[in-house]
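Teaching assistant here, posting this on the class forum so everyone can see the example we discussed in section. The complex has four components, and the goal was to see what a joint structure prediction looks like when all of them are supplied at once.
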Amino acid sequence: MQRVGGSDRVKYAVLVIGLIAMAAVTVPGIRAPWIQGTLWACLAFFAGEIALKAWQSHRSGQARAYLGSPGFWWDALGVVPVPLALAAGLPPEKAWLLGSLWILKLATAVPGLALLGRIIRLEARPLASVFVIFLIVLLLAGVVEHLAEGPGQPEKFGTLPLALWWAVTTLTTTGYGDAVPETLLGRAIAGLVMISGLGVFGLWTGILATGFANEHRRREFIRTYELVTRVPFLRTLDAAGVIELTRMLRRQDLAERSVVVRRGRAGDCMFFIASGEVEVQVEPTPIRLAAGSFFGEFALLDGSPRTATVVTTRPTTLLALDVTDFHAFTAQHPDLARELAAEAARRRSPVKDDGHSAGGADAAQ
Amino acid sequence: MQRVGGSDRVKYAVLVIGLIAMAAVTVPGIRAPWIQGTLWACLAFFAGEIALKAWQSHRSGQARAYLGSPGFWWDALGVVPVPLALAAGLPPEKAWLLGSLWILKLATAVPGLALLGRIIRLEARPLASVFVIFLIVLLLAGVVEHLAEGPGQPEKFGTLPLALWWAVTTLTTTGYGDAVPETLLGRAIAGLVMISGLGVFGLWTGILATGFANEHRRREFIRTYELVTRVPFLRTLDAAGVIELTRMLRRQDLAERSVVVRRGRAGDCMFFIASGEVEVQVEPTPIRLAAGSFFGEFALLDGSPRTATVVTTRPTTLLALDVTDFHAFTAQHPDLARELAAEAARRRSPVKDDGHSAGGADAAQ
Amino acid sequence: MQRVGGSDRVKYAVLVIGLIAMAAVTVPGIRAPWIQGTLWACLAFFAGEIALKAWQSHRSGQARAYLGSPGFWWDALGVVPVPLALAAGLPPEKAWLLGSLWILKLATAVPGLALLGRIIRLEARPLASVFVIFLIVLLLAGVVEHLAEGPGQPEKFGTLPLALWWAVTTLTTTGYGDAVPETLLGRAIAGLVMISGLGVFGLWTGILATGFANEHRRREFIRTYELVTRVPFLRTLDAAGVIELTRMLRRQDLAERSVVVRRGRAGDCMFFIASGEVEVQVEPTPIRLAAGSFFGEFALLDGSPRTATVVTTRPTTLLALDVTDFHAFTAQHPDLARELAAEAARRRSPVKDDGHSAGGADAAQ
Amino acid sequence: MQRVGGSDRVKYAVLVIGLIAMAAVTVPGIRAPWIQGTLWACLAFFAGEIALKAWQSHRSGQARAYLGSPGFWWDALGVVPVPLALAAGLPPEKAWLLGSLWILKLATAVPGLALLGRIIRLEARPLASVFVIFLIVLLLAGVVEHLAEGPGQPEKFGTLPLALWWAVTTLTTTGYGDAVPETLLGRAIAGLVMISGLGVFGLWTGILATGFANEHRRREFIRTYELVTRVPFLRTLDAAGVIELTRMLRRQDLAERSVVVRRGRAGDCMFFIASGEVEVQVEPTPIRLAAGSFFGEFALLDGSPRTATVVTTRPTTLLALDVTDFHAFTAQHPDLARELAAEAARRRSPVKDDGHSAGGADAAQ
């Protein structure tokens, strides 16, 4: 949920300009002085970024902590190497290539990288198995083609390393075409290698797809779990209780202006607002409830009909808790039932007096 | 469920002919006058389409609405640019290339594009992460190969842009073969880049596959949900009630001539017809019920045995509601139970008098 | 579950030999007479196959049915065209190419093709959407590269058809390398096209993977469903009943020598044997029950403890029906409960007299 | 769960060195004597490995068993062929290629290979179907291109084998570019072949992804199943009972220092520790329980409140059994309930006397 702010936009713009200038500086024809000027300006910007962070951490008395953090070293990696390389006498078009380390700044901007890392770590075992299959097919293909094509094309398949180069370009279906088997046996083997390549690739993709699907499910569970832990009167639950409650909640994605509960109807569940907003249509002024709030708990406590109609004001995700699940749950967590009853009593009285007073952060119908 | 009608077929035929003529006009040898004639005819057809739509909207008093709609601008984009380009003095074989915008008309004909757009939007975060990995691998691979191969093949890897061109053709496993590393280090790096390419591609595919599977499940839920909202006496349900009922319904895909219920047997569920048709075998004339109808509700109301055998007349999808689920549901929606009882009473009497009178849009056994 | 029998093996061997000979006949150097002899022999074999089938169908009085069946025309397609082509004066190396139609015989040997066809049909809409995206990217990429690269490489990108040829080899990541963009703009566009190619391919794979997973689940359900319909005393169930029962059954995959039930223990479910075999350890001789049989129903009828230990004799798949599910089910299908009680009574008496007499096709503990 | 030990690391290091030396020996320029020396050293190492294993098995009196095992023949395959080939007069750079068989040693180190083999075996039928589609498209594409391109490029498409070589490089999207169609018809067919290639590949990937996902679910079930079978007082359960219990258990992944149960609260489930460790905070010294232990069973036996707070000491996976599930289960397995009650009584008394005495391998609550 990390947003790209204004200062970040400037940073990424500088990053893109710097990388383009870095590419340009390697082209003999356009090694103009203003390109090097641009590169120095980018370097100065990143150096200034470090100085600013260091000064801010110094002001808050945490300079030592910042200088010891990985973030500092990560930032320094983008600034220090180029001047060092220039000082060591490297030509500018080589030295500035170290500026390619700037792109690593992108990695910190993408929260999903952690997710991908997690998938790869969880599925490390089957991925490693596929890699071993890849290596075995690669070596055996290289040896066979070396024997089959080596005599005919010594400059392409004459040594095992050359044959392995052919094998890797073929097994990944890259197919440069710089080395191509010409004998019948060599081509038959090559056909099998290509098909094996598709198979290996398919396994690879299948593993990553399954890993991603499992991780997706887990993230969904955690999203619900986190909401549960943010509701105040559920804070006393132990881990098993929170997990149990999370399994009971049913997610409901509603469009704008959907009627969630209707005044006077019998109620059979209470709702937590995961995202979006609802309007409790009480007199004289409707109350709006934001994400994190809950409503409809009277129906679970005393079976009374709904006291007000509740309508979504925008696309809203609710978590519904059925009355039977709620009773099964509170039977084993009696203190929770007591707390909820107290909360409901507190809420019911102000609602009767003045609709506005229930409009707090987690007020409810 | 959008059908391609007769006028659409003509339109797509014109589109295909126009695109072929557009391709032909760029070939020096066959720049015959009749090809340009064909192109003008296609342009006239699309212009006529706009005129027809404008006249129709004028007749219904909505000319202003049409001229302001995206559809008008979309259509105009296919007609206006080519004459403008010709008037501006472009040679015909260049000007007619703007006719390639005609293919965008296809996009409006494919309802699934919205689905794909939705998946890409929902999975934007992990897809962006994979893209950042792609960019980081691309840049680092380009820099390393520039250093490794640049001295030996200056015209292929001598500048960073050239090396990046090699990297993108390799990382996507396209492998043109116009630039191929020749040093041992360069080839080892290239092998790693190819394998990374497979990995990035696998993640990409995994994300899209998971997104598609989730969207598929969601569509299935919505299909059931929509049927529920179309049944008349369920219209008074609030959003939570419809979702609850949707979760209770079990989809049954039956072949042609399957016996759904058998006369005289005890009934344990009622059925909604999602698609297909069933025949209620009552005397003297069987009644046919189409999609949207329901039957078998007597069993849920008074536990009476089935009053008629019901057989499918073609492959049919039913949504079954179990008696226990139904009672649990109507206990919390008592007005619904009352409405259903009234409906059943109304239906039961004409069925006893005359089998025909129950054959309305949502008549039932 | 179609097996490849002995005669099929001969047929496929002839097929492989025929196809190799067909490939050889096109090679100028090895157009030896014995290759043509082999081809004629293969043709004779396939002609003989038709004659044999015709004779068999004639003997069973169904000659007319065979000659009108698609199988006959399919077979004839492999035999008739080559002689016709030779008679029409085509050179042998061209005429025999029509023998490639023989490979279509493989299609009938692979039952999974129907499954794949079904998936493609079910997912036709999203697959068509991806194809339209493919076409739009293809055309626009071709037009842009034609403009960018046409002036510099007129023989590679000078006409739109040439540019489209480049686009299709690039978008599918085939990358022959016969046409390669050389300008900066052309290469930037080409990079985007390659990445789009991976995206389109990922969507394609995701759709097919999802379709396959759904079809897999459906097949699993149908496997259980089919077993239920094969159990004699369940034959009176209507379609909804069979589906309901199928949902109640839990599949259990057991290794060889697993103890399924133990004599004297309380029983809580009955079992149907989906595949494999179990041994009911009764005195004096154990009874073996094969796939399709059921056992353990006494526990469901009168709650008596298990009367014998039952052990699997090989890897076995059982379908277990819990006592609560069974009672819920028979409460709504009372005639089924009566039939089962009668069946159990019939079985219990012979078991007490003589263990052997219960060993029939669907005998049980 | 197989670890790579110290001796294994030496073995894999020798393997890598040997394979590099084997590649080097085929390069004419660097055929130095020390490379052959390295190869002989690697061979000696692998021979020594066999001798060591043989001596160890001889000491334990199982020499005959070892010499007859596949492991021996697998090991011998890496040692015997090279000397035999050298003795037969092959030049060293050919003979040492047989050392590529050493890489097969990697296969035994990757337990996931069995998993992949299982998936391929289970999905053999649809994979074979896709392969048949592949073959049919391959042959027909080859024949058509042979006819379309053969006259113009006889040395590339002049025979069917040459055209098939083009077809296999194109259908797998490898695209060497050594043979490229040049006619309009040939290129249109080639475009269709490339798109078919993507489709075939997508099906292939989809099948493997589905197979992997199913196998993943099965492995998860088996992991829980195996834990259940390792808990001592559950050993008397028959197969159906273990499966039933496995389905009842809910997996909970908890972070370090999560509170599992809180002293004095009502308990609603008992826990088995699948992995990780928990600390039972009893006086005077907390008890640590490792994987395989269980706790919290008092709540299931007599409904007493939790007698101690239990906290995880590291990331821990628990299997929770709800009180209702437990009662339903023990109602049908009364001896199990008796055993658990006896076990709990035994545990409760020492806990009261001395917290330490309950710290055995599977002590609990």
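For the discussion questions: The longest helix of chain B spans residues 184-230. Strands of chain B lie at 250-254, 259-261, 269-275, 277-281, 287-290, 294-295, 309-312, 316-322. Think about how each of these relates to the inputs above.
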